[in-house]
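Practice set, problem 2.
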Amino acid sequence: PAKGPAGPPRRSFTNFFADAKLRRLEDAANANRGDVRAELNFLKELNATYPEAVVRRFESGRYAVSEPIVKEYLKALAQTGKLDSTPLEGL
């Protein structure tokens, strides 16, 4: 967070808008957990900044899965350095 001239840190507009977009995408994905398109849209956006969150969400097993979603998960594993230590059987 950026520091204001006097006082506590404040969020930048970039982070605020990115986080607001992520919240909207997450809400859409959570509203219908079987919606592959909504889940993929959320994971793609999430992966840009929070790949560890993509890994946790995918591994929870509670959300839609498709080949493009698995690919997004693999990208997140690579970004977090966990690809080599994660078993991929059954994906």
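Problem 2, part (b): a different protein.
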Amino acid sequence: RKLLASYVVLREGFDVLFSDVDVAIRPGFVEDLAAHAGDIVTQSNVKRVPNNAASGTGPGTGTGDVVLPPFDELNSGFYLARSNTRARAAFEDMLLEYRKHRALNEAAALNDQILWNRVLKKSCARARRTGGVGSQAGEAECA
């Protein structure tokens, strides 16, 4: 239902900042988020571990964090969606995908996180093929 609620707000011309209740927001975070140029800005469910290899206590080379799989799972529990044609189209695609699976009685197995990842990855792939990915949307931003 949060996809539908967000879509209705986007369709009315407003941007959507959505957060599940278990997300802590630090001071200045909304401003940082708004500085990103994407149509839909989200976070991934990436697990990071400190890289302590230099001391012999962790993986890697000792510089920076190590990202563990899954590398590309987007979190549907937190996002900023801008009210523009591309973001609305992505939400329409998610709602269509949901209706398709609901009609096949598969909705119980297909939650919003799965829809979110499936549709946004297809949108990114389509944008790459057509040159629609902006200069700030590289592999990490459009996984």
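Answer key, part (b): Residues 85-103 form the longest helix (19 residues). The CA atoms of residues 93 and 119 lie 7 Å apart.
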